[in-house]
Amino acid sequence: MTSLGESALNGNLTSATVYNPDCKLDKNALWGEALTVTGYEGSTAQTYANSGRFGFVSLGVVSRPTPTPKPTNTPKPTATPKPTATPKPQLAAPTVKIAKVAGGIKVSWNKVTGSPRYMVYYKEGNGGWTKIGTTTSTTYTRAAKYLKSGTTYQFTVRCCANDKKTLLGPYKASGSLTFYAAPTVKIAKAANGIKVSWNKIAGAPRYMVYYKEGNGSWTRIGTTTATTYTRKAAQLQNNVKYTFTVRCCQNDKKTMLSSYTASNSLKYTK
Question: Which domains, from first to last, does the chain contain?
Fold first, then answer.
């Protein structure tokens, strides 16, 4: 049997044998003033006899089957990592130079072996780099119409792929250059000669004035901080065509800061 309920055999028993070592014995399931319980050592019968202070006769040690150990999970094999692609060696950074030219700022750099194209960038003052575009050439001119007078510029160039997106190497920044626009010059005949006038250029300390006669070469007249200059009649020849131009210059009256655009020509007659 597997269990005896409370007072199941409560009849002043003198002996009871329990063969099931795990038989459930409720309170007073077996009782007798001179009761002796026979069962296996370590069984519920022995526990019942001890708790009720009954006699106990051993049938021996109960033989219990050794529990079969649960199989351990076999670890899954770790995936073999995919080999990482060997990075392509980067191309060298072009060495960039910049210079003032009549049309704006010219950027030039050395040819880098293996580079299909070049990506050109610029920045104003302490600002960040701005992408201009790509070229297969080793020169680029930033037109004056895209530049702000009195603003300092830097340029740099990086090697790039033909997709115009993939960069193939690092960069080195050029030196700095402050751009000054070429003044727009106008001339008109005045009572006392020829009046030359031009627009004020932001950041320009002074202006250098030039003239030429006919198809001759330019001759420097001098500098001024004003935006007008009058060439006196005594300094002009009758029936000669004159052209004037103006360039921004430093206060040393020597260092030119801008390119120039010539005025219209005027034939002076006294």
Answer: 8-60 (no CATH), 96-179 (2.60.40.10), 185-268 (2.60.40.10)
